Amino acid sequence: MAKQYPQLPFERFADDAIVHCRTEVEAEEVRAAIAARLRDCGLELHPEKTKIVYCKDDDRRGTHRHEKFDFLGYTFRPRRSKNRKGKFFINFSPAVADKAVKAIRTEIRSWNLHLRSDKSIEDLSRMFNPMIRGWLQYYGRFYRSALYPPMRQLDRSLARWAYRKYKKLRRHLRRATHWVARISRRDPKLWAHWQMGVRRGSMAGAV
Predict the structure, then answer these.
(1) DSSP-derived 3-state class of residue 171
(2) Would you say the C-alpha torsion 26, 32, 38, 44 has a positive or negative sign?
(3) Contact, 21 vs 30, CB < 8 A?
(4) Taking CA 107 as the corner, what is the angle to CA 180 and CA 206, rounded to the nearest 5 degrees?
(5) Long-range Cβ pairs for the range 52-55 (8 Å, 24+)
(6) CA distances (Å), origin 118, targets 2, 114, 161, 180, 181
(7) What gap in Å lies between CA 168 and CA 175, rounded to an integer?
(8) d(CA 54, CA 67)
(9) At 10, is the secondary structure helix, strand, or coil?
(10) Which of 149, 161, 204 is nearest to 182 (CA)?
(11) What SS3 class is residue 41?
(12) Is the pTM of this model over 0.90?
């Protein structure tokens, strides 16, 4: 790339790479050149993962077989965005990938919060905040609202924990949900995801 296509920016992590081309013809040429170079090294492009993606947005309104791709836990695709003047437009941008969201949900379920009635909510936050904070810092850099669904799942798990822990909340899951929402508004720093802020001041109060 440095010798043959110095004008084209590209990123690489391990064996994944993205090359930014201006036209489809140019992209086809670069793909063929990279494939040839890899063959010289006894390697080959992955036949299914390697593809040309059309970065569709307000300035590129055509259609293509591939209009999105995943890279480093993010999905890059056309998204509805809003500019500083409040006007909506289509922007080709990243957000946490579905595969990453699934992994987050699986991890949250593995905590079995509803079975930890011996712990206080402060104990639980100390146990799991480091991982939650890591998710938010990494995946929350772009299009943070894509993280709202798995974080709402976490609050539902906390509601089920409160439902089992406190006698006054038993058989009243909705009451437990409101209890978590009140705690989140009163002490938003207790859990890392509560500081994201969404309607009513917390993830627990989101609709």
Answers:
(1) coil
(2) positive
(3) yes
(4) 30
(5) 52/21, 52/24, 52/27, 52/28, 54/24, 55/92
(6) 59, 10, 10, 17, 21
(7) 9
(8) 5
(9) strand
(10) 204
(11) coil
(12) no
- Taken as a whole, the chain contains a residue count of 207
CA distances from 98 to 91, 104, 131, 149, 165 (A): 19, 10, 18, 11, 32
Let me know: does 141 contact 201? Beta carbons within 8 Å.
no
Helices and strands (DSSP H and E) totals, the chain: 5, 5
Residue 154 has pLDDT above 70, yes or no: yes
- Name the pLDDT band for 196 (thresholds 50, 70, 90): confident
In angstroms, rounded to a whole number, what is the distance separating the alpha carbons of residues 187 and 194? 9
Q: In the numeric block, which tokens belong to residue 206?
A: 């989101």
Instruction: Report, in angstroms and rounded to the nearest whole number, the Rg of the chain calculated over CA atoms.
Output: 22
- What would the pLDDT profile of 120-142 be if each residue is shown by its tens digit? 999 999 999 999 999 999 999 99
